[in-house]
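Researcher: I need the complex structure. Ligand is shikimate-3-phosphate. Inputs:
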Amino acid sequence: MSDSRIDFLVQPGGALVGRLRVPGDKSISHRSVMLGALAEGRTAAEGLLEGEDVLRTVNAFRAMGVRVDGPRAGHVEIEGVGLHGLKAPAAPLDMGNSGTAMRLMAGILAGQAFDSELVGDPSLSKRPMKRVAEPLNRMGAEIRTEEGGRPPLRISGGRALSAIRYALPVPSAQVKSALLLAGLYAKGETAVTEPAPTRDHTERMLRGFGYAVEVSGSTVRLSGGGRLKACRIDVPADISSAAFFLVGASIAPGADIVLEHVGMNPTRVGVLTILGLMGADIGIENARESGGEPVADLRVRASRLRGIRIPPEQVPLAIDEFPALLVAAACAEGETVLSGAEELRVKESDRIAATAAGLRALGIDARETPDGMIVRGGGAFRSGTVESLGDHRIAMAFAMAGLRSQGPITIRDCKNVDTSFPGFVELARRAGLGITIRGGR
Ligand code: S3P
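Model: Output:
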């Protein structure tokens, strides 16, 4: 990966029209590769996200002796080696920008016979890993972090794991998943209790691979010592990527788009609930099941949005969508208050600080609070320059601001858009956004 930086330049105005399908779900794509590699037999997936984050996961398994054909045009085939078939990698595994890859891999690697090391890019190297290292060590793993619980993670192999019961201190699907994946290798029944519902793809997909997972109330349980059986997976379009277009079409006068085959897992649809409360016009069409996940086509038309108090229970269900939702809030009549969202401070960037700074750079009254933000909406964006801080979701959220702007908007440092949404600029341009790429600094 080169160090070259790129900026987005977005011209004011335009509307989003037509039908489009955004790339595959990132969470499901990572898990498809991980579970496929650990299963017995050949797993095939369609619609896989070919973003850099997922390719890091693919490369990590290749480095541990797993044959992966593709991905090409969303199709990938993985020759599973079984839970005990991975080989020691020759070098540290580089997870790039991906917190999901690093945290879930920590759970898998904790149960292996060999030593391993997980490293990441400068953003990932600042993110908290004690949240996985500490409970995994309680299971008998030996994972060392850097000062302050940061990466790299050095994982000693050959440790016998025993199941624990663990109450998550923060709602985190990544920590839950890391413990469940380690639980596959542990003696006894691992039980993870969540303080609030988070995305449940690991639970669903383990079942899809034939593994018994019990869910009762807020607790997920599984017992170690079983086997995963290869399966076929249809990855839906990522609702977190669709979110930029849901917001863009809601704020752009004259917009009317259909987003096809969007994943509608109930633990992911907070963005629809929140936009609905704000008065967005989103129709759910052709709702159906596909490969164990609900999907639908979403028709979005421009509407007058109003500011709201975002219900705190929706926060974990929309955790990746707040940069986009706060851009919507800036276009809404009245005040929007986000609270209970301190987790946003430890994403690919501090998304509370980055979003507030971006909104202010475009002339919006946005006030940070320790756990959220207060945005006074109602007007249009002013021309300005937004620092994405290398965060893909900040970059794409502010690209949509162009649809309601009085002048051009520059967004800096947008290369990491490729981690979750390769082809974003082309797709957005085809839909009607006046966006171009510039060589940057
Ligand atoms: C993810 C869980 C969430 C989310 C991330 C993907 C996953 O992170 O923000 O983009 O695939 O499990 P946390 O578990 O840190 O909330």
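Model: Summary of the prediction. The longest strand covers residues 281-290.
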